[in-house]
């Protein structure tokens, strides 16, 4: 059983530099697939390299399987890491690349062969075992790098942006393979670093979203931890709300008219709009922000009553759906709306948008979210 605990973990690369990791408290359960995600430079690789033992820890405690490992050398931690750059030996075959780490540990040949065979089976590398890396595609090379981690039979797998060098189709395929690997390996815990929120949403049991932070104290700190659906439906801040989901959430300025335990009414573009949140802590007349995802805005049909009037600026047709970029006028600005199918409307058309109370988010003037009061998936 291998849980991983970050307790008040800090990292400062050099004296006088700001903290790269600021009091990180993260709990990763045994067997869990945990994804560290966030903008470039927020400290994801730093956190991962601290687990691997490749970076010193400046403060706090890091525990693997309940044991404090701050001072334990990498080879004794029971972890294996897969990098974006594959890092294969070019003059060694696939089999030799996978065997190398085990040989240096002094494992016997029969055991090494058995482990390579099993890993090659899982990763469909059996026909490629005698090839050199230069005769492999990018996806195959990354599978070899994963195979090299599997044969070590680690308790914890660490992945640092392993799909970033692959083209779009291979990224999806390898993503599925990594998800299957996690199922097949059952008890192994995985920490997976990516800047791509789609990878985080599709792979994670638990997402740890890190701040890039405009403020020093925000840098390298945890913005929210939770399941993919929790971060999508219940973001606790505007930062999380805008990071998760594509295209990103629209955020519109509004003023609070009425604040109740189960709903608020705000003035948005001159109209009263109801939002299903607990708004009791907000000050009367407070400046607030209404968030709505592009997929939750609906074009109003005729005779449906009050709706937000907008002008269509531009249409992107994706085949299955279209993205409409619309102008809501002064105080509202540009919004993105996702509609099913190929939109027929031409730029310049006048449209009206309907917003539903249960689909809206409400943020205060410090970008913190109000708790939503509709029933939402976990
Ligand atoms: P991410 O993986 O999220 O893109 P990193 O963990 O690589 O971010 O880096 C986080 C911050 O720490 C960045 O500002 C980066 O410049 C800094 N950093 C990373 N490695 C070093 C290093 N060896 N020395 C000094 N600063 C570093
Ligand atoms: Mg990185």
UniProtKB/TrEMBL annotation:
Domain ABC transporter: 4-237
SMART domains hit by this protein: AAA
Pfam families the UniProt entry points to: ABC_tran (PF00005), OB_MalK (PF17912)
Gene Ontology molecular-function annotations: ATP binding
UniProt keywords, alphabetically: ATP-binding, Cell inner membrane, Cell membrane, Membrane, Nucleotide-binding, Transport
Family matches, as InterPro entries: AAA+_ATPase, ABC_transporter-like_ATP-bd, ABC_transporter-like_CS, ABC_transpr_MalK-like, ABC_transpr_MalK/UgpC-like, Mo/tungstate-bd_C_term_dom, NA-bd_OB-fold, OB_MalK-like
UniProt keyword Cell inner membrane present: yes
Top-level taxon of the source organism: Bacteria
Entry protein name: Sn-glycerol-3-phosphate ABC transporter ATP-binding protein UgpC
Organism: Azohydromonas lata
Gene: ugpC
